Predict the structure of diguanylate cyclase.
Amino acid sequence: MNLKPRFLILAAAIILIASGASWFAFQRIAEGIIEQWGVRLVETQVRYDSARLLQPLIREIALSRQMAHSQLIRRWAKHPDNPAYMQEAIAEMETFRRNFQDGSYFAALRASGAYYHNNAQNDYAGRQLRYFLNPTTPSDSWFYEIIRQGREFHLNVNKDESLGMTKLWVDVLIRDGDETLGVVGTGLDLDRFIRDIVQLAQPGITTLFVDHNGAIQLHRDLRYIDYASIVKAEGEKITIDRLLSDGQDRTFIRAAMRELAGAGPEREHDTRVISRFVTFEGKRYLAGVAYLPELDWYEVTMLDLDVLMPLHSFASVLVIFAATLLVALLLFNYILSRWVLNPVAALENAMLRVRDGDLNPLALPPARGEIGRLTGHFSAMAESVRSHTQELEHRVAERTEELHRLASVDPLTGLLNRRGFTERINAEVKRAEREQGRFGLIWIDIDEFKQINDFLGHSAGDEALLAVGRLINASIRPYDCAARWGGDEFLILLSPCDHDTLARLGERIRNSIETGIQLAEETSITVSIGACVAAPGDPIERILQRADKALYTAKAEGRNRMKIANESRAKTA
């Protein structure tokens, strides 16, 4: 045989051997790449789906909580037989109805068992009372179970037999202290919610949400949803265990749920996505499990990697590789890096930045196919998380500011309370010492205030406090501040201030109260006033003691007068 055919045969053998080895190596490498990509994909998909689910639900839960905390609704829930309270509460609930996404609300009262409802079409205007709950009726057991559990809010997929509709219900307890008065909330159309949130157009991805018992709450196939799971015994629920044929897979899902939820109240909830391959509905899927502490639910996302990135999609690369090993290797490395590795690395870097709290936009390289869609999903998710985070930070800042204001203001008079005034006078003492300035302190006490409460009632006493507070606030300068120190005592901080200003302003306040307030039965109000001018270096205790001593002197000399303490002996610069 000539050398040419031998070389041809040898080359053919080498090509066949190299192609077989390359195919084997390629197959293993490709499967590893797909699995690694799948792990990152399932983590990204889970976070994206979680954000899509939470965005509409958080708003509805927040509105339901506001409705449950309404003073009008609480008062009505405590006195359900009062028609005036009922009308005010229904008007309040109608206001919330126009803000709910579904345009509907419900309210169930524990005392009477009455169930109120109105829908987006306002079909039940004027007749919001739909029926009465009965503890012996199975379809009403959800209400009594929610009351029994005592959780602040609950998400419940259930069919209202009386109203003939199936919804994802947001149930929030109405509470007055430790007493549970009823349940209020809203509902989301289940079919539309599943269509918009759960049913993904992307083939190969199955997303479902389960509660802390593993009962399926949301699934694209309505047959798998465990309706009214709150009132079912454990053996009757449709859980995720029924979808997993292998016992080890069921053990993995349950163990992941326990791990993510945390070992106890001292441990923070785990924000990771735990993933593993499982057999789901008879096929091998990559499962990702995440915990949603805002809902006390779990998200389980199943990825069919054979659909999302099938191995035969690399066949064109393999043909090129078999034709010429070197060129194919170079071409494969180029294509793999450009289409898969570089975008996945960039996406991983972006994910790590988001994980570490950096939500600033990051430009990702262009990609095609599944990677391109994944990049788009991640960008949309990151933008949604960024927007949601900014909104939450804004709400927290507003709430913090409001709480600080409430903690510093007297709720009756609107003046500063003891805490708020203490902060102001502390700051003024430091400023006076720093700038070597003086300020004045006026201590006001309503004369015979106990007799007003005893003979005219506490409402008259409150009216007197309000009137005194208004006159004080109207009499002081814009840069001074006044506070209700406690009971019938008021303090005024004047800065800057000298003896003449203190005397003139104090006498003006005393006179305006004496002539400007008239209670029932022609009862007038007078006040006794003690005041002092504080010098740099005066401690707060001494300043208060001097003003209080002057007040005591004014009361001892017959009330309805003002006394100013002697000048402080503290040294000035």
Remarks:
- DSSP finds 15 helices and 18 strands in the chain.
- The chain has four domains: 8-62+201-309, 70-192, 316-402, 418-564.
- Residues 263-267 have pLDDT under 50 and may be disordered.
- The longest strand covers residues 165-176.
